Amino acid sequence: MRTSTLRILALLIAATTLALPAQAVDVVTSRDAPDLTLVRAKLKAKDFAGALAELTPMLRTNEHADVYNLMGFALRKTGDTRQAYTYYRKALDFDPRHKGALEYLGELYVETGQIDKARENVALLKTLCPTGCEELADLEKTIAAASTKTN
Known about the structure:
It is a single chain. The protein is about 70% helix and about 0% strand. With about 150 residues, it is mainly α. It has two domains: about 25-80, no CATH class; about 95-150. Helix 1 packs parallel to helix 7 (about 115-130). The two termini are about 30 Å apart.
């Protein structure tokens, strides 16, 4: 059932999405996002605990895909893949076309041995980025690297 849901989502995205310009993962996807500059700096410095400390209070006041996505990323990097999955799904509930969440959820799938699900996210990103984007390229590289390790 999950596969059919993702296929339906892909079709909806493809049907409703015009070619959007590529954005880097650390670019705010909407104007109503809180200021995540400090969080992104901590993530770049691999201070995941510090990023979580910044993000946790934001969750009470900011229901936003970017906040949920970065929370998922920080949690995944600290090893909490279960909670990370929850936050990536919340990000996608708020914005099903959130390229960063699709990429990072795909990376989580790779890390947990669910390559087929990661490939589904690649398919979704291809509909969002018909001419390519950083998120798509990064997820494809992650899958290729994982495939090399298993062969």
